Each structure stands twice: as structure tokens, then as C-alpha cells.
Amino acid sequence: MVAPPGESCAAYHWIVSPAGASAPPPGDADDSSRLRAELAESRERLRAAHEELSFEVSARMHAEVELRNLAEALEQRVAERTAELQDSNERLRRYAAELARSNADLERFAYVSSHDLQEPLRAVASYTQLLARRYQGRLDADADEFIGYVVEGVTRMQQLIRDLLSYARIGAADADMEQVDTGALVDQVIADLSQALGESGATVTRGDLPVVLANASQLRQVFQNVIANAIKFQRDEPLRVEVTAHRTGVAGTAGGRDAADEWRFDISDNGIGVASEYAERIFVIFQRLHRREDYPGSGIGLAICKRIVERHGGRIWVESSPGQGATFSFTLPMDGPGHRRADLPA
After folding, report:
1. Residue 218 burial by CB count (10 A; 0-12/13-18/19+): exposed, middle or buried?
2. Across the chain, where does the E strand assignment appear?
3. If you ran DSSP here, which 8-state letter would residue 11 be given?
4. 9, 239, 265, 333: which has the fewest C-beta neighbours closer than 10 Å?
5. With the C-alpha atoms ordered 111, 117, 118, 119, is the resulting torsion angle positive or negative?
């Protein structure tokens, strides 16, 4: 209803609702309030979720920055370490090449020296022996003794030079590798030492021995030197020497074959034995543990064995106690230096 012209609207503060209209029911007002409250609560939850998400995004971005920095630092460190390793490897390569040249020069020097020394020493030995034959007993006792010393010294020097030449020859040239039946090889060594074995009353036995890829002449020298040492250093009781071999490593499948990669040879005796503190010294060239008067020899036999075995890619050692005998063991690669398979004989 509209107020008549000239009259205040305040007089008509009541208003007549349109026909058919009515005020909202009390329940609708409660729903509206609840909806507003839920909306406000949802907005608050969204705001909190937004803040939490923003925090997580910020933290992740910070973590990514730190990770990127760490990755860059790691890459830098790897690059520096790689450069250091390359430099170290280059130095090692130079040192190895220098050492190889030095060893080759030393081997050539030992070979040439020992070879060239033989001729003048042979002349000295000949004239000394001639002097001993012609004048022994014609001079006084002191002269005979002195001549004997000279002859003995020259003979020993000749033996030392021959041994040094044998030692130098091992590395003078590459050894020819072939399939070697070590059983037959040991039989040949036993036959060669038959006189010494008979005189000493010693017995040598062997088990089944494998076929290996090796230099036959050098490997034969290893067996001969070790067995000859056993004969030399035997006790009062009869000597017994046994030669055996077995494969080392853990059995498994690697392309249908065992994972074992070495043959181990054991040469055991019941001789005088070796004290443990000398287990490495006996393989050093010209090292002796006994007086020459008690046990003859130059002290080079085991050094030659060590050199041969190592040039074949193996290792050699002794397990022993004084008075309990000794077991000399050495290994050879299963496939040999040429990477060929070696097996027990059929």
C-alpha cells in the first residue's frame, strides 16, 4: 500500500503482504543458518587445506632445490674423484711400465752376466784343477790346503752361475704352453731321481694328476726340485713322498661348468720339516737355512719353483713344522694362461 501524497510513510509502517503470500516458516530459517554454518566451516577447511598444501609445495620446492644442489655437488665430487683416479691410474701405468722395463733389464743383465762369466771362470777352474793335479803333494801341506780351497770355491762359483743362469732363463722369453699330463710328468721325474731314491731308501707315490696347460720343461723342474729337496732333507727314518692334486673353489654352474678355477698340487713328505718363521724365506734366491757342510746346494731351487709357478699364474707355499715333515703346495689356473680347459685324464 502506498502512502497518499503529502503524508508520511511512517504512518503506514505496516505493509500488507500480497495476496496469498506468507512469512517463511521457522524450519526454513534453521536450514538456512545451518547451510551458512556449513559453508563457513567448508571455507575454513578449504583455507586450512590450502595453507597445508602451500606449505607442502613450499617444502617440496625447498627439498628439490636442496636435492638439486646435492646432485650438483655429487656430480662435481664424482668428476673430481674421476680425475684423481685417472691421474692415479696413469701414474700406476707409468710405474708398472717402468718396473716392467727394469725387471726386463735386470733379467737380461742376469742372463748375460751369468752367461759371460762362465767362460773366464771355466778357464780359472781348468788351470786350478790342473795345478791341483800336478802339484798336490809336491808342496807343503798349507799349499795343498790352499789349492783345495781354490778348487772348491771355483766349483761352487760355477754352480752358482749355472743356477743364476737357470733362474734368469725362466723370464728371458715367453714359455711355450701346451697340454701337459702331470701324472706322466711326475713319473718321469721319479725315473730321473731313481738313483737318489734308491740310495736314500725313499719312496715316491702319486694320486690321479690332471692335464694342465703349462710349459712342460718348467713344470717338470718344479716337481723335480721339490722332490729332490725332500730327498736331501730327510730324517733317519725311510722317506715317504706323496704327490696329489685336487680342484679348488666352490662347485657351481657357470655356463654348465664348475666354478672352480685352480688346480692345487700337494707334495708331502715326512722329512725334517721347516719352522714356520722360515716359510717365506726359503723361496728367496740364495737363501739357506742350514750349513753347506750339512746340506749341499746353492739355495736357489725353491726360488726357481716360485718364479715358474708365478709366471704360470699360480702361487706356491709350504705348511710344515720341525720334525713333522712338510707339504709344499702350488696352484695352476684351471684354464691356464691361454684360457683353455684342463681336465683329469680319462
Report:
1. buried
2. 178-181, 203-206, 211-214, 240-248, 262-269, 316-320, 326-333
3. G
4. 9
5. positive
What pLDDT is recorded for position 1? 47
* β-pair type (262-269, 316-320): unpaired
Cell numbers standing for residue 264? 692345487
Other residues' Cβ atoms within 10 Å of the Cβ of residue 274: 21
Return the pLDDT at 186.
95
Cα–Cα dist 261/336, whole Å: 9
**186, burial (CB in 10 Å: exposed 0-12, middle 13-18, buried 19+):** buried
Alpha-carbon distance of 265 to 295, in angstroms, equals 26
Q: What are phi and psi of 24, to 5 degrees?
A: -65, 145
pLDDT above 80: residue 166: no
3-state secondary structure of 241: strand
C-alpha cell at 227: 722332490
95 pLDDT tier (thresholds 50, 70, 90): confident
Beta carbons of 164 and 204 less than 8 angstroms apart = no
Mean pLDDT of the chain: 78
How high is the pLDDT of residue 257? 43
CA distances from 240 to 112, 147, 189, 328 (A): 40, 41, 15, 14
Identity of residue 255: G
pLDDT of residue 78: 92
| Distance between CA atoms of residues 44 and 91, nearest Å | 69
How far is it, in rounded angstroms, from Cα 251 to Cα 13? 110
The pTM is what? 0.57
Confidence of residue 171 (pLDDT cuts 50, 70, 90): low
